[in-house]
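User: My notes are a mess, but here's the protein and retinal's SMILES. Can you give me a structure?
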Amino acid sequence: MLKSLGAVVKNRGVVSASLFLMCQSAFAAADVVLKSSDFVGISFWLISMALVASTAFFFLERDRVAGKWKTSLTVSGLVTLIAAVHYFYMRDVWVLTGSTPTVYRYIDWLITVPLLMIEFYLILAAIAKVPNGVFWRLMIGTLVMLVGGYVGEAGYISALPAFIIGMLGWAYILWEIFAGEASKINATQAPQNVQSAFSLMRWIVTIGWAIYPIGYYFGYLTGADPTESMKALNIVYNLADVLNKIAFGVIIWSVAVSESQKS
Ligand SMILES: *C/C=C(C)/C=C/C=C(C)/C=C/C1=C(C)CCCC1(C)C
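Assistant: No problem, the inputs look usable. Here's the predicted complex:
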């Protein structure tokens, strides 16, 4: 009783500390305010708040699931926590200067995308013995995808070849989870619940992640007016994050809860 009370208090402490850190403006001197016609800015605001709420939810729900699922929920909460903090900065860059916060976006991705990949590894590791190669192949695919995208968006190389490099990295990840070792472990060793979570997560990485290259396309490859392209790019990336960070976490949460109730 005392022990579990201690755990709850500790958990609450972590949650309030993270929320405190988040609930401040990134840049202090702001005489510019959000305009009611700035829909991109509004989307940055909405999503930053949704990310804060999701973080609290995933951390608190840790109490409800069996031990071997707790790490997966922690990782989901870390993904939304890291993204929320970056969203505060991105929101301010957009609202104050009207420019696209590419560096913050990619720093966020560089941390959160590997964490999302680790989730695949973790849900399999909770039920089977998984070789390290699975982990490393997912990491290599992620790095190639993100470095390709960054050198294109930051203008180090032209947008199209950079796009192709990024697409190859993503294809490598898809191969691993649809046909590679990760997919085989799932098909042969995982219980029903885990298999259905794995399959949903896999579709998120296919369909949900496809939204980002579509955003990139509208941002850099249509030849349209740069102001309009950058609005489209940011809206598309922002919506994609709701699906790929929050909904992805909710799927893991739901399998963790249902598997925990079994035992
Ligand atoms: C939470 C953030 C996530 C899940 C970000 C994912 C980003 C991608 C899947 C980006 C993909 C890209 C390509 C496949 C091609 C090159 C351009 C990128 C980097 C936008």
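The chain is about 85% helix and 0% strand.
User: Great, I'll file this with my notes.
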